[in-house]
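Morning!

This is the sequence you dropped in the shared folder:
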Amino acid sequence: MRATVIYGAGDVRVETVPDPKLSEPTDALLRVVRACICGSDLWPYGSMPARDRGARIGHEFLGTVEAVGADVTTLKAGDLVVAPFVYSDNTCQFCREGLHTSCLHGGHWGAKGVDAGQGEAVRVPQADGTLVKLPHTEDDDLLASLLTLSDVFPTGHHAAVKAGVNERTTVTVIGDGAVGLSAVLAAKRLGAERIILMGRHQTRTDLGREFGATDVVAERGDEGIEKVRELTNGEGTHTVLECVGTKPAFEMGVGAVRPGGTVSRVGLPQYAEGPIGPSLFRRNITVTGGVAPARHYIPELLDDVVEGRYQPGKVFDRTIGLEEVPDGYRAMADREALKVLVKP
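The structure's back. Tokens below.
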């Protein structure tokens, strides 16, 4: 089969790789229907050291079941399913607590002999626990929105949930990428009436307004912090959802949050140290967030997506075939595309 392989910074290729096969009785085989490129894929695309042996990549995909192992009881051939961005058994102590990203028997796509999502097919470990059945559809827009359930919509939702967003909280979202826009949508869904989106790409912030942002702040750094405070009577917002992962973004979040507020980080941190000293302590600031347990949130979000109450799939602004994936990476890295959908 054909699949995406990364060899180093800027070096993504589509190659022929071995076809997946059932190897454990808890496995399922999927034919990929939709996949996409994630903003977090751009970190290795921008900095991964060159290597002779490439690595499989991609962790967001929908597929149809082609075969299941002897112990799989909830799935059958022909089912349309969504795969969260990590696999899990959905039964261990951490999964039962809603923390599927810490599953004792889980793992990551593209690691330890497991297929990745940017390809024609995938072997799915722990299939009963990992995969969520979807209603059959051939509607491109609905499939795009269902695909966001694999990562970006639950990640935005996680940011809002960890921050305690509700109808009484004001919100600042830092980042106008797919996760930031999903966080705007999630905050609106949880009842927030004042949502300030910090972003500087107008086509993206226009979508943010459609998703529920009431204000847009294009400035960054101290100037951006001051602008947020101007919009909130000098106080800052109750919550900040940091959806970028850089230290300057975190610093803006700390500056934009009001005393007693919460900064929730879901952007993959690209720094080891940050502003966690006396300033946060004296202002009673809570710092939270982390890797989103998408499998935990999918059942909660699914009906709203299927019924069309929310359309997170609008974050996809380019659709390509599998062989075009290297150009899709380039387009996202060059900010020519917000998020690229792949139709194998």
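Headline: The first strand starts at residue 2 and ends at 8.

More detail when I'm at my desk.
O.
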